[in-house]
Amino acid sequence: MTAIALAPPSAGSPRWRSLALPATLLLCWEVAAHAGLVDARFLPPLEAIAARCWTELGEGQLPLDVAMSLMRDIAGFAIATLVGVPVGLALGLSRTVERVFGPTFSAYRQIALFAWVPLISLWFGTGETAKIAFVAFAALNPIVFNSAEGARGIPVHCREVARVLTFGRIQFLRYVALPAAFPSIVTGLHLGLIYAWLATVGAEFFLNLGPGLGGRLNEGRELFQMDLLLLCVLLLGLIGVLLNKLAGLAEARLLAWQKR
To answer: What does each C-alpha distance from 184 to 105, 151, 177 come to in angstroms?
Structure first.
């Protein structure tokens, strides 16, 4: 039994299975590029991507692009969190707020994200403020929605206990509403972080001023530098996966801490 417990994970374990498809796709990419199945101008081999990455790292441009994209992502996500959680709780806890602002929020949710680009560029210009505002707009939706759903889902008996104990609004919010809605709020923050990263790329792509991975995507497209374009695509996917993984770990830790 001890030998079985200490045995390494098999090739069929979920950990390895999750890497099978990306590895297969990369292998097919490399074979197709070297076998002449595709035009190398459109799909350069992986070593060309690696060489471009090394050049960008040596020049210091790529680290700056990644840092600026992450900065915009975190700034927009932070603003959406500071605004979205209180707004969501207000919508979920107050029938008056729900009646007055609920229809407006529902309409806001139906508007495609990139429809805000012309308005944001008029309101904030095309600089850093506009990009961060766009990211905040994107992350706001899941944060408000999940916070409101968590507040609406407070069990009736918890409300009755708070009423018996004559809790004031602050006490009810602190000891009843926030603990009960916390799992849903954390889920909304997780989704908001994902939405924020997707919006960061879009903001940099459409509001193309200053360093950032989205701007480098535009550069690769306009100059037909496929090695640069594909390098940025791979980095965007890798960073997105890492952010999602970190958010999942943080969510699990926070929910486990709450249950203690």
So the answer is: 18, 8, 11
Question: Is 128 in contact with 138 (CB distance < 8 Å)?
Answer: no
**C-beta atoms surrounding 61 within 10 Å:** 13
Residue type at 240 in one-letter notation: G
Contact between 151 and 93 under an 8 Å Cβ cutoff? The reply is yes
Distances 37 to 27, 40, 45, 78, 233 between C-alpha atoms, Å: 13, 9, 12, 46, 21
Closest listed residue to residue 35, CA positions, set 123, 50, 27: 27
Judging by beta carbons within 10 Å of its beta carbon (0-12, 13-18, 19+), is residue 138 exposed, middle or buried? Answer: buried
pLDDT in tens, 215-251: 888 888 888 888 888 898 889 889 998 998 888 888 8
What domains can be seen in the chain, in order of their start residue? Answer: 47-259 (1.10.3720.10)
- The whole-angstrom separation of Cα 199 and Cα 114 is 9
| Residue appearing with tokens 């999750």 | 18
Nearest to 137 by CA among 155, 154, 121, 161: 121
pLDDT, tens digit, for every residue of 32-83?
777 777 777 777 888 888 888 888 888 878 889 899 999 999 999 999 999 9
Length of the chain: 260
Q: What is the gyration radius of the CA atoms in the chain, in angstroms?
A: 23
pTM for the model: 0.81
Tokens of 62: 């790529």
